[in-house]
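Submission sheet (multi-component)
Chains listed below:
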Amino acid sequence: MTGTPQRKYRSDYQASIYLIDRVSLDFDIRDGSTRVTARHSVRRNPQLIGTGGRWWLDGRDLRLVSIAVDDEPVADEALEVSETGLWLNGLPDRFTLTVVTEIDPDRNLSLEGLYRSDDMLCTQCEATGFSRITYFPDRPDVMSRYTTRVEADAERYPVLLSNGNCIESGAAGEGRHYAVYEDPFAKPCYLFALVAGDLGVIRDTFTTTSGREVALALYTEHGNEDQCHHAMASLKDAMAWDEATYGLEYDLDSFVTVAVGSFNMGAMENKSLNIFNTACIFAHQDTATDSDFARVRDVVAHEYFHNYTGNRVTCRDWFQLSLKEGLTVYREHQFAIDHGSPGVTRIEQVRMIRDVQFPEDAGPRAHPVRPESYVEMNNFYTITVYEKGAELIRMMAQMAGREAFTKAVKHYLDKHDGQAVTIEDFVLAIEESTGLDLAQFRHWYAFAGTPRLRVSSRFADGRLSLELAQATPATPGQENKPNFDIPVSVALFDDAGQVVRAPEIVRLIEQRETFVFDGLAAEPTVSVLRGLTAPVRLEFDQPDDALVRLMAHDSDPVSRWDAAQSLYIATLKAAVTAHQNDEPMPALGEGMMTAVAALLADPPDDRALLAEMLTVPSATQIGEAFDAIDVAAVEAARRYVKREIAARFEAELERLADAHAPSGGYVFDQVAAGRRRVFATALDYLACLDTPAIRKRAQAVYDAADNMTDRMAALNALQDLPGEEREATRADFAERFADQPLVMDKWLRLQAATEDGDTVARVRNLLADDRFDFTNPNRVRALVGGFVRGNPLGFHRADRAGYALVADEILRLDAINPQLAAALAGLLAPWRRYAEPYAGGMREALARVGEADLSDNTREIVDAGLGDQAGP
Ligand code: PHE
Ligand code: ZN
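Outcome: structure written.
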């Protein structure tokens, strides 16, 4: 926890001097301590010549019991042990290394390595958790075949799991038992997994195209089995989809998933033994919303897809993380689009990029999709590596065409099967297979920042000239940006909404280029960057009537939604400025009113799309229009516009709510979920009018609900309406779901997002409540994350009490779970984006955190936030 943290550089990569062909692990699980005996067959890396004999093994928080080379204890002179690992000296070219360590999973609250989650023991090794289990070269380019023996008390831990096939099991005396697993595939240590516990299970099977029968099992704490069926069905769906889409079949006889309550992330793709946060497995209509169902489906698919993109072909080093994550998120996105409303699914992806990735790419933590350096790898599991990484893949797929791209991905997987490779290897394989020239495209991986794409159009003599220009702002450590290779889809429509030029992709390579469309009868309406063909900010001033036409007629639902968003933004911007200048709020823009009226009069068949188009842009999107975010003004503008829409269209919204009211018989499918979404949206608008009728209606919806989606719609509508109805429904909720921690997370979020009264005091009380558990990341994210994200006015309170609360929690957490503490610190880091007094208050809180003795994780984030933005 002290000293200057070591920064690692991509350019410093060196292959491992020794390789480990075989790893044999023995876990002796006892109360109070677990003994790990590791035996490795080691040989010199034949590709490296020159000095050898000396080797570094990573290891943290381990008690070294013994270490031997070829069964001879290593002499003291040949051993240098430190806090982060050890050096071995005088090694032969080939040897057997035996390392015995002791670890204490019960006292490991970092949730890395072997740790306790409620009554079970489980592991998390990505990125570098394996070095909390034994001394080992904890790097993904050392790939080995693992045999694992686990022994534990038979009553307390009847289920013993590890990667691969169970080849032996039995009694071990004194009420103990054991199991031996063998994984036939060589893997990096970050994919190692072990679970021991008294668990319930649901089982199923999947038969692959070539006839292999795969046994599927999903384990969870007893009593939750009925919440696991959707995850199991999703897994089978994902297996079938990967065969149908990429021709990829599962490669072992068993696939096991375990759901654990304490987990730092969503889930982990360990070979044949995925470990999941319960939040990404449990889905039952009583306790999970439609979006929970969708998240479970997509995360289950994501982890399954990693079996090829990540496990069979893995990363050479952690700078290459997007090699597996970008590609796997892309595959997950394709899967999601094939399983829901394609338009709305893409809208959700676009919103994520704009609301979360663009801000990251414009803030103190901006980094390329392939970072150049890091202090703590755990800080780089970012929206940039994941989602921007997926957008880069999507761009290549668009340029190549989907079929050619799928073929190219298969070429990549064949070429590098069983290897640990780089992003460059991937891009090369895509070039080889598709014939694309990606020379300039590679800049997307190397340079951070969101390019601005400025578009202007001129029309004369039947000819439309579309001028595209690009510019990318400086980011920490990267002053000057090259030109990117930007695929931009363009389509032209006439006034009646007919297509006059079918969508095509043009590539902007130079800083500025003009594209000409000839032979047009009249000036067309231009639709560009349709569905966000590149992760850029579009600057294109289009008149309201053009936007209204696109909103009504564009053939791409994402473009229709985008046009609607632009219409809302114009009014919202004016409202922000009015609030800032103490002027009366502006009248709602005419274009926007026309748009909303048209939507309500003639709604799209896709009800989820209707709901999206009726939703005003997020606070983040409004803030994007300003140099400095004025939190109070943005909130005031959003509320004002929503209330005005509700007042003007009250009758239509009532009718919409009636036509989409809950009707019982819950199913999770596109049509039913779309209907529920429209109902929730209408209810949310009507709630802005705060009438006794709407309060009663929300309460009635809550009381009659046969599913969590409708219940949450009612609770959300009552969110800003203090009174009897809100208190009654919340009290019922807290009691009804008291024994369901994931549902209590929703309750914590509701409390944290409630504005009236002293929110900070309320959140502080909840932090001390029995229903809160500081060591569980889901609870912390719900309460503290829910407060920061869900309660802008409370968090940004003038007396700075909101910032102080978050700073206190970062400091308290840093001592037990640095990974989570660093994530919370990320909430204060982008203070520069805010107007005063917000910026100064956030900065002060961050500086106070910075004065403490911090983990490397949190230190890296705090330093970036307080730095001069020059960066590493
Ligand atoms: N690799 C996991 C994924 O599928 C994420 C993860 C990273 C989980 C690190 C735990 C720790 O995206
Ligand atoms: Zn992943």
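Remark: Residues 557-580 form the longest helix (24 residues).
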